[in-house]
Amino acid sequence: MKIKYLLPILAAAGFVFAIYTVIKGNKPIPVAPAVAEPASAPFKLFIAGSGIIEPKSRNIAIGTPLPGIVKTLSVKVGDKVKIKTPLFYLDDRDTQAELAVKRADLAKAQAAINEAQASRKDTQSLSDLAEAVTDRRAISSEELLRRRNALQISTAKLKSAEAQVQQAEAAVLSTQTTLARLVVQSPIEGEILQVNIRPGEFAPAGTLNTPLLVLGNLDQLYVRVDIDENDAWRFDKNSKAVAFLRGNRNFKVDLTPAYVEPFVVPKKSLTGDSTERVDTRVLQALYSFERSQLPVYVGQQMDVFIESRDSSGNEGTGL
User: Fold this and answer.
1) Which of 28, 60, 86, 109 could form a disulfide with 215 if both were Cys (CB 3.0 to 4.6 A apart)?
2) The pLDDT of residue 160 is above 50
């Protein structure tokens, strides 16, 4: 009798449980709260753009004019350098040896000048004696001609020796220039942002995907803003602009227009959004702000809002 009622009860319980599971499964999954609330525009009409922080001098990728093994690294990340401060030294042993040979050649050439000068002085004396003879019967025309020719030959040898000295001096100067190029110096006054080489590593010349060092002037920071080409017609470089630090909208700064690069380029700063177009072209505008205004680093992204005009040409009003 108990089994007779038990099976219907279990079936009914299973049916109720199935209904509960279906109803619960159909409830929408709550959206997870944002880690950081996104920034909102302070203008009624605006252009939004993604900005990236860069130094006033832009990021200078330091290279080397000559390839070689890094002998000494003179700086580290964060160091402030002056113009022509040595950044790193390349191995110069073969160039030093070559310089010693060129200096020896120069000394040899200078000694040859002394020899040529003495020879010319001797032939000059003999020629002067021959020319001083008033009685032509005392010296033959052949001897007089021979002494004149000897003087001309010694003069030519002296000029040749002087030319060899100039050539040897130029060779020494060329090797010294090569030696100087093995010392890579800072082209500006700035701060070391990145170091990608170590002593003992080979430093190649030419264009590199990863620069040997990155240098920049951080006295003032710039924000490079990508403005979509579809919004370019609404952009006014003299309009107000505000930047919010990505990750914390409480950090914001008013931007000062610096300049606009009047050349629309393909967009490179991609967000990874599935709806993002990769064939978008952007106009790049640069704004400046003082480094002390925000705790930021070069390469950080910022959300930038620029006040714009509507289609009738009227400016949007701030909220």
Assistant:
1) 60
2) yes
